[in-house]
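Quick one, tokens below:
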């Protein structure tokens, strides 16, 4: 089902059985495969690929030539940068040991899950199965091989956490006041003033006093 308010460029390739939400835009040479469900207000850039059965929430931006392979699940407000790749085969081979070409029944697809508000930088690669936590930020060119906690800033090959980010995407500022060992137990967003609390290896928004 394609919403009456969705905008699809004539050169885009939209399979039968695709759902496009209200005001979603699919640009030049993009391909969206059977069974994919895209929410409202999404923007699918030139040459992007959305695989069969992939789910995108509302207000997602998939930039030019990003490859989102099935069975990826993407939450609301997620940014997927140019030329990002979500893989789906843990043990890729073109052929079986006997030389026969691999078919659909010769492997099991695994997916990347991206939670609400997260951003994946340009040319990053996410190796399925992996989950990117809500509001996390994956730096450009990173290779993600394990789950990324909510609000984490990760970079490198393989990607490692190098900081924390708030809901606006800005790095959080450490607040070590009152901590005798000088290690931050709370982090502050310079944009909003929101305060976050370290909870094991994760970060969570502190409840209002």
């Amino acid at each position: 089902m394609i919403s009456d308010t969705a905008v699809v460029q004539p050169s885009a390739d939209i399979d039968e059985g695709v759902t496009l939400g209200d005001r979603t835009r699919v640009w030049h040479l993009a391909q969206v495969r059977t069974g994919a469900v895209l929410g409202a207000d999404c923007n699918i850039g030139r040459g992007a690929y959305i695989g069969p059965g992939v789910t995108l929430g509302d207000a997602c931006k998939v930039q030019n030539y990003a490859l989102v392979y099935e069975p990826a699940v993407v939450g609301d407000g997620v940014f997927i940068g140019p030329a990002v790749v979500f893989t789906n085969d843990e043990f890729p081979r073109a052929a079986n040991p006997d030389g026969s070409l691999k078919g659909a029944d010769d492997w099991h697809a695994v997916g990347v899950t991206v939670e609400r508000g997260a951003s994946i930088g340009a040319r990053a690669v996410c190796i399925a199965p992996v989950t990117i936590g809500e509001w996390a930020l994956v730096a450009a060119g990173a290779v993600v091989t394990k789950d990324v906690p909510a609000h984490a800033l990760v970079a490198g090959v393989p990607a490692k956490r190098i900081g924390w980010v708030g809901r606006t995407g800005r790095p959080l500022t450490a607040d070590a006041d009152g901590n005798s060992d000088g290690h931050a137990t709370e982090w502050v967003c310079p944009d909003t003033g929101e305060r976050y609390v370290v909870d094991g290896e994760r970060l969570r928004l502190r409840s209002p006093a």
